[in-house]
Fold:
Amino acid sequence: MTKHRLQTELCRQLGITYPVIQAGMAGGPTTAEMVAGVSRAGGLGTLGAAYMEPEAIRETVRAIRQLTDRPFGVNLFTADMTDDVSRVQEVQRMLNPIRDELGIEAGKEELYTPNKFVEQFQVLLEEEVPIISTAFGTLPDDAMREAKAAHRIVITMITTVEEAKLAEEKGSDILVAQGSDAGGHRGTFDIGRHPYGANIGTFSLVPQVADHVRIPVVAAGGIMDGRGLVAALALGAQGVQMGTRFLTAAESGAHPAYRKALLASSEEDTVITKAFSGRPARGIRNAFIDHVESSGVKPLPFPTQNTATGDIRRAAAAQNDSRYLSLWAGQATRLLTDGEHAEAIVEQVIKQAKEWME
Structure:
């Protein structure tokens, strides 16, 4: 009976053994080794490719295939990437004291964020990536048609019931319902309507979404172990997606200072902020967030703020200084473990889930 209950429709649809998805966290944490490890363990590994060059995605996809023949996915952003540079001078002046402390040049007043989505998406089609997931909206209509024609499974991150219904209508095969306790950027479609994201808790959101769509729903946000998986299944989800849980895995590409901050944090330490990227994201409060929020200067919209702060984050990483890194994390960091392999994490989650179900 236990095995049957863990073999959900999600598993059958994705061709995986257990209903556990590793989140496609952009910016470097999701290495080929992590993705492959999760998939080998019977879950679904996901490459966070939103900030990657198209050819780097191709190389990483091929590296994953060298490590496993199991299904895996790739996550992209579908947000509008048009820059808003109307207040660049004001924002750069506010950020320059941090640059002075790090010993780097003053911020540039001419910023440009390239939109790589079309090229990134074409690589996924060319490399026959079986599962494509998106954040900040559904695939554009033309891309959705191409994905469907190529028999790809499309996963969409959502944060409200209305977003879920729209994503299903647009052709998504699976929905990831992301609660406000989730780390990093959540998938809220309209930041104009929800300036700090649609802040509905995971276990309030999941059953409401499950009641209003026909396609499988995956729970995300604050889920770190088998207890969370069992709870999600009880509320109508057919699986879970976990991001923060894998940030301190042996295969994680997270910076050592980032790992250290995660392991030292508690459920009280995270905030939702636009300071780093201009789009709401949950992370551990640090000196960068304090500086921006106390300045009285409103961050630029995404993606321009993300581009403007890139030099600071790179310098902080080079100097091993977590005060100025984006320390994305969900609200359950006390449940983190240090240096476990990705495969072992999946195995531990499933073992615990089975024990609770029995």
Summary: The chain has a mean pLDDT of 96.
